[in-house]
Amino acid sequence: MGAGAAFVMPATLSLLAVTFPPRERGRAIAIWAGFAGAGGVIGPLLSGLLLERFWWGSVFFVNLPIIVIAVIAGAALVPTSRDTRHRPLDPLGGLLSMLGLGGLVFAIIEGPERGWLAPLTVGACLIGAAALLAFVWWESHSDTPMLDLSWFGDRNFSVGAGTITLAFFSAFGVFFLVTQYFQFVLDYSPLVAAAAALPVAASLLVVAPRSAGLAERLGPNRVVSTGLLLIAAGLGLLALTAVPDAAYWTVAPALLLFGCGLALTTAPSTTLILSAMPTDKAGVGSAVNDTTRELGGSLGVAVLGSIVTSLYQARLALDLLPEQIAGVATRSIGAALQLAQQVPDPELGRQLAQTARAAFVSGFRTAFVVAALVALFAAEMVRRFGPPVMPDGEHHEGQPPVTQVPPAS
45-89: per-residue pLDDT in tens? Predict the structure, then answer.
């Protein structure tokens, strides 16, 4: 599934880059970003609806007819574009990048479980760091690099890529942790928990298509930095309002703020990345955009999840519980709540559930403070170094053309 997504997402974005003229490209990307972000929230809503009535595997089967429709519609409607020059692949660069990022993410995730100084954790971190250094060296010396690092010398490209990475560091962390908060702490069902995240989807659908016009009028540095500030405000509000017995109306405004901030940030940043690339490299720019998105998301889930896990285990008051029960409860809040329903003593189960929820919320709030600080840092960097005007993309007209083939009738 990951390999399929890696083919699909960059292709959809690069098609926008070669289909729309520069003056319309930003608005097309803004609409694309709104629906892509909303889909990430609508998917869990449909999954929650299925889980209310069917077994967990139904969330995978439901995608099959959607894929069939997409394949047929794509073959009939989507234009074909291809680079006029054929470039060899860079398998060594791909291997080094996967090894480097995989090693670092593995170390971050396993740190709370195995110990931050455990040989496996330290070894994975060192291997990941060494592989990433080797990746930079190889890409700098290869004649056909997978990622031409010289593109980061372009301010539009580097600001766009950095912003996407940091914005989705917070975004994926929110989706990962808020769902657990709704289900484990507030005791929402899967369907209700998914529906509770709809303010994010609504704000993405409404605000993202308008972000391109705002960036053209006010400048991408102002719009993107404002979006990052809204993300930070939403995260900060979540950290303040998330308590074990919170009412939904106290949490919803934070999700709405967060969604508006993500909508203002994503589309202009994506446009900055693509504007820095010649038309015949639209696929490369699209791939970089999706890679930074997934990189930020993976690190967000790993880092913020590890913060929650570490603090959950440290603040789980289990002194009065038997050792065997305490050992199971420290694995996760889900394990603790399941155990609380199974213990023979109802009072002991109630205390365990209450303790687990309080410990999780403590880690949850700390993680969101960290994510808010990351968003504030990104906002300041964009305000200082982001371009004051939206590039028109016309400076690449001299590049080799991209061949567009009309769709089959």
Answer: 888 888 888 888 888 888 899 889 988 998 888 877 666 667 777
Measured distance CA(403)–CA(409) in Å, rounded: 18
pLDDT of residue 367: 92
Tokens coding 176: 């990962």
pTM: 0.80
Q: Which residues constitute the domain of residue 200?
A: 2-81+146-317+354-405
d(CA 324, CA 212): 56
Q: Which residues contact 380 (CB under 8 A, 6 or more apart)?
A: 225
Quote the tokens at residue 401: 């053309």
Q: 144 near 88, Cβ under 8 Å?
A: yes
Residue 403 φ then ψ, to 5°: -75, 125
Most confident of 110-124, 343-357, 365-379: 365-379
**Four-residue CA torsion sign, 196, 41, 292, 27:** negative
Residue 90 in domain: no
Strand partners, 199: none
Residue 242 has φ and ψ, to the nearest 5°, of -75, 105
CA dihedral 122, 289, 259, 1 (to 10 degrees): -70
Give the domain CATH number at 372: 1.20.1250.20
Give strand pairing partners of 304: none
